[in-house]
Amino acid sequence: MQQLLRTAKFASTVPSVLVTAQEVIVPRIYERFNVTQFQENKTMPRDLLLKEIPNHDALRDKIDKEFLNHAKKLKLVASMSVGFDHIDIKECKKRCGDGIRNSTIGMIGLGRVGGSVVTKLKSFLPQRIIFTDIKPDLHRK
Fold first, then answer.
1. Are residues 90 and 119 in the same domain?
2. Residue 91 buriedness (CB in 10 A; 0-12 / 13-18 / 19+)
3. Three-class SS state of 29
4. Beta strand pairing status for 4-7 and 16-19?
5. Tell me: the pLDDT tens digits for 9-50?
6. Which domain holds residue 61?
7. Distances (CA, A) of 76 to 20, 68, 107, 119, 137
8. Cα–Cα distance, 109 to 76 (Å, whole number)
9. Which residues contact 129 (CB under 8 A, 6 or more apart)?
10. Please, are residues 35 and 7 in contact by the beta-carbon 8 Å criterion?
């Protein structure tokens, strides 16, 4: 019988992570995410992976077209390995969002934090950044 350990201790709005191997996981992952981990000392069978992935937001495993077709909630593909032969980059690129290049970004307040965010945003090449004063309420008095 295939064993899955589920630690769903947060609301459904918290991302869920599927761990497809019996491996040591950074303890912080359990503090921040709902985790389902395969508990057998072998690779998670492909049929079980395809059955489980529609319920999860992230995982670490082989990523190909068939897998992506099942992974409707997937928001992140990450790899802790040398190389990325196990990830179908071409298929992943087809499913990426538009990003913020050539878009308009709106900022409310441009104080210390807002200014820092704008500085970082510029590297993503937005078409323009619109912002309010540091304290918009001052002009109403």
1. no
2. middle
3. helix
4. unpaired
5. 766 778 888 888 766 666 777 788 888 888 888 878 888 888
6. 4-94
7. 15, 11, 26, 25, 39
8. 30
9. 104, 105, 106, 107, 118, 121, 122
10. yes
| DSSP classification of residue 102 | T
Cβ atoms within 10 Å, residue 22: 16
The domain total for the chain is 2
Beta partners for residue 129, in sequence order: 105
DSSP 52-86: HGGG-SEEES-B-HHHHHH-TT--EE---SSS-TT
The whole-number pLDDT of residue 6 equals: 67
Which CA distances in Å does 12 have to 1, 16, 56, 91?
27, 8, 11, 28
Q: Rg (Cα) of the chain, in Å, rounded?
A: 20
Same domain assignment for residues 76 and 11: yes
Euclidean distance between CA atoms 96 and 82, whole angstroms: 23
Give the C-alpha distances (Å, rounded to integers) separating 95 from 58, 61, 71, 88. Answer: 15, 17, 11, 11
Q: Are residues 108 and 86 in the same domain?
A: no
Strand-pairing partners, residue 11, are none
Entry pTM? 0.55
> Residue 90 above 70 pLDDT?
yes
